[in-house]
């Protein structure tokens, strides 16, 4: 599917509007590009930069006519140094040229000019590593993300802020409570809602056509029920919710629908990686796996 066939892709709309358009056109499935060494070997590819490039390009070719969003896991490219990062840059460029939105899963987080440097590296459309959105960590304080928020505003890009992650040890921090009784994850979600409102996005309850915010949250598919249990509002500010954990990692559609509640219908973008990538390396097999997952999620 070309840029011209995808509503909102390739123009100057905000990230939230482009993501909402992509999800309307192609569903809620986001395909991970995760070239584990084991997957490279099973695909008959070398564990080097050329293998990474070939792996990523095959996923992009299969995804371009099926889904609207891909998410490269930066770590698997970064472990090969400059050559691996060059391969990532080429894969991301191919994905965007194919009309796909790219979420760079780099989980960056720092302060001041350092955070600004990370933001420009990933969110400036003229940068070699340009992506449509970036995952970021709020655990130096949500306020420390201000340079990334500003870069996202400037470039029409998005951020996905770590909220309720699926790793068990994350809950020790994310569900810790302040003296006022709020969880850390709840405070993060509330600040993201405020930032979306400050950027002209909705601040609270909105009718169903309300747009998505440009700033989203990462909420694990298996941990979403903890939001309601601990009084965390995932709908305020209409953040897009990036949900890893579907399929091979244990979450099914019924559980996610129940866990995300009101947010499920329009806000949740579900990432799938291993369950799809294990179908490769033939493009027809990857396409079939993506189509099956998309039907499961949106059927």
TrEMBL record:
Enzyme Commission number: 4.1.1.23
Q: Which domain of life is it from?
A: Bacteria
Gene3D superfamilies given in the database record: Aldolase class I
Q: In which pathway does it act?
A: Pyrimidine metabolism; UMP biosynthesis via de novo pathway; UMP from orotate: step 2/2
Q: Does the keyword Hydrolase apply?
A: no
CDD domains the record matches: OMP_decarboxylase_like
Give the enzyme's main class according to its UniProt record, as a single word: lyase
InterPro entries, per the entry: Aldolase_TIM (IPR013785), OMPdecase_AS (IPR018089), OMPdecase_type-2 (IPR011995), OMPdeCOase_dom (IPR001754), RibuloseP-bd_barrel (IPR011060)
From the record, give the transmembrane residue ranges. Answer: none
What PANTHER family does the record tag this protein with? OROTIDINE 5'-PHOSPHATE DECARBOXYLASE (PTHR43375)
**By what name is this protein known?**
Orotidine 5'-phosphate decarboxylase
Q: Which organism is it from?
A: Nesterenkonia halobia
């Amino acid at each position: 599917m070309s840029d011209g066939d995808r509503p909102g892709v390739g123009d100057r709309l905000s990230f939230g509007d482009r993501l909402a358009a992509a999800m309307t056109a192609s569903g809620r499935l986001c395909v991970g590009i995760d070239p584990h060494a084991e997957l490279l070997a099973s695909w008959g590819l070398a564990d080097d930069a050329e293998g990474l490039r070939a792996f990523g390009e095959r996923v992009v070719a299969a995804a371009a006519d099926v889904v609207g969003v891909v998410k490269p896991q930066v770590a698997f490219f970064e472990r090969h140094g400059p050559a691996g990062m060059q391969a990532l840059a080429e894969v991301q460029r191919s994905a965007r040229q194919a009309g796909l939105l790219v979420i760079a899963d780099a989980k960056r987080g720092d302060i001041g000019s350092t955070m600004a440097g990370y933001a420009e590296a990933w969110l400036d459309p003229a940068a070699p590593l340009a992506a449509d959105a970036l995952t970021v960590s709020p655990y130096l304080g949500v306020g420390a993300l201000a340079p990334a928020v500003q870069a996202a505003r400037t470039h029409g890009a998005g951020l996905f802020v770590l909220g309720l992650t699926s790793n068990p040890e994350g809950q020790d921090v994310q569900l810790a409570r302040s003296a006022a009784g709020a969880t850390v994850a709840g405070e993060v979600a509330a600040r993201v809602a405020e930032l979306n409102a400050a950027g002209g996005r909705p601040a609270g309850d909105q009718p169903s056509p309300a747009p998505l915010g440009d700033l989203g949250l990462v909420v694990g598919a298996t941990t979403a029920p903890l939001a309601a249990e601990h009084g965390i509002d995932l709908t305020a500010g209409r953040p897009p919710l990036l949900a890893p954990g579907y399929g091979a990692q244990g979450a099914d559609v019924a559980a996610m629908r129940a866990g995300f509640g009101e947010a499920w219908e329009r806000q949740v973008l579900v990432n799938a990686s291993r369950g799809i990538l294990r179908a490769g390396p033939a493009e027809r097999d990857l396409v079939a796996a993506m189509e099956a997952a998309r039907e499961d999620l949106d059927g």
